[in-house]
Write a structure and sequence with these properties.
The chain folds into three domains: 4-57, no CATH class; 86-168, K homology (KH) domain (GMP Synthetase, Chain A, domain 3, 2-Layer Sandwich), CATH 3.30.300.20; 172-236, R3H-like domain (Ribosomal Protein S8, Chain: A, domain 1, 2-Layer Sandwich), CATH 3.30.1370. It is built from six helices and nine strands. The strands form three sheets. A three-stranded antiparallel β-sheet has the order 1-3-2. The chain has a three-stranded mixed β-sheet with strand order 4-5-6, with helices on one face. Strands 7-9-8 form a three-stranded antiparallel β-sheet. The chain has 239 residues and is of the alpha+beta class. The chain is elongated and about 70 Å long.
Length: 239
């Protein structure tokens, strides 16, 4: 059976129904894209027969394509990963330490930091009281600082330096929260047999949800929408 077809009809609904009959599936099992709408007809086509074209793609096939793309991207990222030489690790650590010292001197709180480096990059951790504002809503400020640290770390170094920042153990706490959320929503989806759309999340957080539910044989996860409003939909797997 084909995974993607183009169907026609006199109306959008008729075109969709024709496509569903060909695929022999219900509307919930496909993604629909209108290619030619009955309302978008030129002046010169008024006398021509009314035809609407829609593209129907099986969700399972689309998921497989996404998984394949993710796998290829992951392999690409592995190939592009460059291990840091000892001298680069030292230089990157010095760059970050200089920046962080200057930063915390301007802040009223007593903030402590630790920097660990290896061939894959650097891990930076900040600790202190009342420094939640450095994390921000859903970690927005934290990730902004992390991006800055990555740029700072690479100063004077030819290769890109990967920096992972955590503040007051936020990431571990957030991962636990997302894990509990994923399992709770999956249970709800299985019980009600209705899909649930989560609130917008960062790519990092969506990846956690996908990973947690990857081995669940009853539900599946899909990302929909555009950044920064991209979110995950958890639904029953097609049987």
């Amino acid at each position: 059976m084909e995974n993607k077809i183009i169907a026609e009809g006199k109306t959008t609904n008729e075109a969709i129904e024709n496509g569903l009959k060909i695929l022999k599936v219900s509307k919930n099992n496909v993604n629909i894209k209108v290619l030619e709408n009955e309302e978008k007809r030129s002046f010169f086509s008024i006398l021509a027969p009314r035809v609407v074209k829609v593209e129907l793609t099986l969700k399972e096939a689309e998921n497989n394509e996404i998984k394949s793309e993710n796998r290829n991207q992951k392999e690409k990222n592995i190939k592009n990963t460059i291990e840091l030489a000892d001298e680069d690790q030292t230089k990157a650590k010095e760059n970050i330490e200089e920046f962080i010292k200057a930063l915390i001197e301007k802040l009223p709180e007593d903030i402590k930091y630790s920097i660990k480096s290896d061939k894959n990059g650097l891990k930076v951790e900040l600790t202190g009281e009342d420094i939640g504002y450095l994390i921000g809503y859903r970690g927005e400020t934290l990730y902004a600082i992390q991006n800055i640290l990555s740029s700072v770390a690479g100063k004077g170094i030819q290769n890109r330096v990967r920096v992972i920042l955590d503040i007051e153990g936020y990431k571990n706490k957030r991962e636990k929260t997302l894990e509990d959320l994923a399992k709770k929503v999956a249970y709800t989806v299985i019980k009600t047999k209705k899909p649930v759309k989560l609130e917008p999340m960062t790519a990092y957080e969506r990846k956690i949800i996908h990973s947690i539910l990857q081995e669940n044989n009853k539900v599946e996860t899909n990302s929909v929408g555009e950044e920064p409003h991209r979110r995950i939909v958890i639904s029953l797997k097609n049987k």
